[in-house]
Amino acid sequence: MKSTDNVDRRDFLKQLAVAAPLVLAAPGCLAVRTGRSSANANERSADELAADFVIIGGGLGGSAAALAAARRGLRVIMTEETDWIGGQLTQQAVPPDENAWIETIGGTRSYLALRTGMRDYYRTHAPLTARARANARLNPGNCWVSRIGCEPRVALAVIEAMLAPYVQSGQLRILREHTAVAADVHRDRVQAVRVRHRDSARDVVLRAPYFADATELGDLLPLTRTEYVTGAESVAQTGEPHAKREAEPDNVQAFTMCFALEHRSGEHHVIDRPSDYAYWRDLAIPAADGVPYRLLSFDEPANQRIGFDPERRTGYWSYRRVIDRDLFTPQPTGDARYQHDVSIVNWGLNDYSFGSLIDVDTATAQQHVARAKMQSRSLLYWLQTEAPRPDGGAGWPGLQLRPDIMGTDDGFAKYPYIRESRRLAAEFTVCEQHVTADARPNATHAADFPDSVGIGHYSMDLHRTTRGDYGRYGATLPFQIPLGALLPTRMENLLPACKNLGVTHLTNGCYRLHPIEWNIGESVGSLVAFCLAHRCPPRAVRRQQPRLQDFQRELERDGVPRQWPRELPR
User: Among candidates 183, 120, 115, which has minimal Cα distance to 518?
Assistant: First the structure.
């Protein structure tokens, strides 16, 4: 195989059409040939597709990478495990967690356009009140975790509209309900990835000069034998003040099965009692103060302060609310879509920290997802029947699931909300001391990275872990995204485009949020286009100052800020 420094992009694609064996996710033998593979006892039939850039995973980072690459003229294929692209914002049903300045700065131009698009969708398609319609900073849910609590379906519609021109032209192809199952790797290059359709089990082999792992769990890293890290590092590995004394690779943050609720006062919508409800109701977990509190309760001090009351519409009810009924006018047609508040339940009470989805077999992962869903269902039943009310009673039987909000039959999200994935062993790893206020006294900004390809800010938000570490919420300074954190130590043409960049267990807590993941994906899509146009590998962009500066100028031209302003708005 010749270097991409010396060949034209199309010639390179032709070289990649040479047949090669694949590395399977499970033991087996597989051969790939041009056109369509023939099948025998050890071989699956598969179609083949080629592009300039293949993105495995259609979440926020994957979608942003596809948009950036297509905008720069590349032919792109993006896969998605579910039938909804958009990741944590859509299929996982998590309204955007963002920085304090996001309305004006702190996101890329295209991310800000996504937010504007969500607001415009409501102005165009929803029965807003005149006052709500005129609000430039419309928050459809009036939630307090975000400045724009938005229904997952609306976010999905806006992301699809942003990608639609490239899909319609044939420049971008999206393979929904496809999961990566194998990879063809030659030395330090990925040559092809085999994906499988969820229902038909039909395989497609995807070939390209560049690949991005935009999966929620970093699934392409083990498939391609790319070096990666999991769980909590030791202080000897990272030098982080709050790192573990010994590394704990199996110690990862909880994931959550979110669900959507409305409340109909005076009605009865209590679900069947879950089979293991008593287990979840009585389970006690030590909190930050060392005291065990029941998981299904508001006994823990922070939860006590917040509270929950869907009648008064306060506390956790408005926390991740995506529809505030006061912003919408009654509909004479009988459309009840906006007649009641709708809130997304994504709390510590349904964080599942009792098993990891990383580096376990499929059956084990499915078992954990099923248990997480049962935990969430038990939380719902508890809220309907036993949760303490301010009037001294118990439960709100009028709480009802809203399947239409989630695009599912049961009102639960299509996919678990993933906080922590496998993480790339990168040329540079962002550590706690680079971003926290405690580690940088008197500083107003985090460490300066000359190779910055974006910015972000969020507290170092760490939820309960599989080893029982209680959540922590550490203050950080406005930080940058270094290009070095997007470059594998060895692989030449595989890049991260989700939560799998070069961060630690601790700094993952502030780099995993919506606008930052989008920025990571956008910068990766732009980087691939830059490398193909200039016939240079990504590593050379970072190491050669003129190329780095050229790339950074292109990012700025496309609306990707690399630095925070010295003076931040109050």
Answer: 115
Rounded Cα–Cα distance for residues 264 and 274 (Å): 22
Tell me what percent of the chain is helix, strand and coil, each rounded to the nearest 5. 30, 20, 50
pLDDT tens for 518-531 read 999 999 999 999 99
Measuring CA to CA, which residue among 281, 256, 271 is closest to residue 399?
271
For the chain, the farthest-separated pair of C-alpha atoms sits apart, in whole angstroms, at: 76
Strand blocks (E) in 116-171: none
Read off the pLDDT of residues 163-202 as tens digits, 9 standing for 90 and up.
999 999 999 999 999 999 999 999 999 999 999 999 999 9
Q: How far is CA 509 from each of CA 97, 444, 485, rounded to the nearest angstrom?
A: 12, 20, 15
Of 82, 149, 180, give the one whose Cα is nearest residue 413.
82
With H, G, I as helix, E, B as strand and everything else as coil, classify residue 391. Answer: coil
DSSP designation for 270: P
Which structure tokens are listed for 116? 């504007």
Helix segments in 242-336, DSSP class H: 277-282, 301-306, 316-319
Judge contact between 468 and 254, C-beta under 8 A.
no
User: Which pTM value belongs to this model?
Assistant: 0.92
* Positions of the chain with pLDDT under 50: 1-42
